[in-house]
Design goal:
Blueprint (H helix, E strand, L loop, with lengths): L8 H20 L19 H14 L5 E3 L3 H13 L4 E3 L15 E3 L4 H15 L5 E7 L2 H16 L3 E8 L7 H9 L4 E5 L3 H13 L6 E4 L7 H7 L7 E4 L10 H12 L4 H19 L6 H9 L3 E3 L2 E3 L1 E4 L2 E5 L4 E6 L2 E6 L15
Parallel strand pairs: 1-2, 2-3, 4-5, 4-6, 6-7, 7-8
Antiparallel strand pairs: 8-13, 9-10, 11-12, 13-14
Helix pairs in contact: 1-10, 2-3, 4-5, 7-8, 10-11
């Protein structure tokens, strides 16, 4: 289940290419018990109604024995109760809303980190590497998901004892952020936290910010736009020292992470991004489960997924229960910092490829 059309289509198309690449590799290696994996891909359009229609088609018409995908939080949240009701295992690989694995649903698993854990990583980084920060400005693109991200960060900032001096939304796709940024500059925040999914929009934001010579100590991008490879291309020198929350990096020390990225670029002439790695790993996890199933039936696939112990390009995968979550894979959330045109891992420390540069050199 992927958003192949709609505003999230760029991510859905990356995931489609990734699952196809994974299935091709598995099938070329003999498949599962001598049989090839067959992928049936349904378009959620990134919205709840289409998500419900997509999963009903997969279950009722295509008679699938397992489902993966789930990029959009809203489309995924609409679909997974249907999977649970019909007792079809659903491996969510990208949707990050915490509530997805907080319902106790036995047929719902998640590969990627919950949203709260990415914010926890941001908070730990601020407390450890930027403990002198006292004030924060929060700006975010005008969508429900971005507004929710802004609210969560505002709450986290308060827990850290930071004062939020600005919290404003902007129109995604706008070509002039200077009125907003002028208001931010007037408050002289120590930290700017921004949420945007578009790399071009995120780049324009930081370029215009640099033009205003706002001397904040730290800028953190909380949306996909700041971590996408073309962000640095669009932003140029303005990308330097920007920190961004990320779900994955090809520089992680996990078997196959770099090789997957190289294969994807060679095949499709563009990087796979974190969402591609998540989708690719999900197929590996499902194939591993199928190899351990004696009779191909949804219940048996569910039971096999529950016993997963597998190393993937994302790192080790094991579905566990913690913090009111069940069947949740626990993996590190990352912070990257753009340095000399490269997105270096700066948090957590044990996975870091570079020490963070803080405060931002003026």
């Amino acid at each position: 289940m992927l958003p192949l059309t709609g505003h999230q289509a760029p991510f859905g198309q990356i995931q489609k290419k990734s699952v196809q690449l994974a299935a091709e590799e598995i099938n070329a290696g003999g498949g599962v018990k001598g049989k090839k994996i067959e992928l049936i891909i349904a378009d959620t359009q990134g919205n709840p109604d289409a998500g419900r229609a997509a999963i009903l088609k997969l279950i009722q018409h295509d008679k699938v024995i397992g489902i993966s995908g789930g990029f959009s939080n809203t489309a995924t949240w609409a679909a997974i109760p249907i999977a649970q009701k019909n007792k079809i295992p659903f491996l969510v690989n990208s949707a990050s809303a915490d509530k997805i694995t907080e319902q106790g649903w036995e047929y719902v698993f998640r590969l990627n980190q919950p949203a709260s854990e990415r914010l926890d990583a941001v908070a730990a980084f601020i407390s450890t590497a930027a403990s002198d920060i006292q004030s924060v400005a929060i700006v975010y693109a005008n969508s429900l998901e971005h507004a929710a991200d802004a609210r969560r960060f505002s709450k986290k900032a308060a827990e850290l004892g930071l004062k939020t001096v600005v919290r404003e939304r902007f129109v995604a796709g706008a070509d002039d952020f200077r009125p907003l940024l002028t208001r931010v500059a007037a408050k002289t925040p120590d930290l700017i936290y921004a949420v945007a999914d578009s790399a071009a929009g995120a780049a324009l934001l930081v370029r215009q910010l640099k033009d205003l010579k706002l001397n904040s100590k730290l800028f953190i991008g909380g949306g996909n736009g700041f971590v996408r490879p073309d962000f640095a291309l669009h932003a140029g020198k303005a990308a330097e020292h920007i920190v961004c929350a990320a779900r994955w990096s090809h520089r992680l020390p996990y078997r196959g992470a770099g090789a997957f990225t190289d294969k994807f670029i060679a095949r499709f002439k563009s990087p796979p991004e974190p969402c591609g790695a998540e989708a690719y790993a999900a197929i590996a996890v499902i194939a591993d489960a199928l190899k351990r199933v004696k009779v191909m039936a949804p219940q048996n696939v569910r039971d096999a997924l529950a016993k997963t112990r597998l190393m993937t390009v994302l790192g080790p995968v094991e579905f566990v229960s913690y913090n009111n979550k069940s069947r949740q894979n626990k993996m590190a959330a990352l912070l990257l910092q753009w340095l000399n045109g490269q997105a270096e891992i700066v948090w957590p420390k044990h996975l870091a490829t570079h020490k963070p540069i803080y405060p931002i050199p003026q």
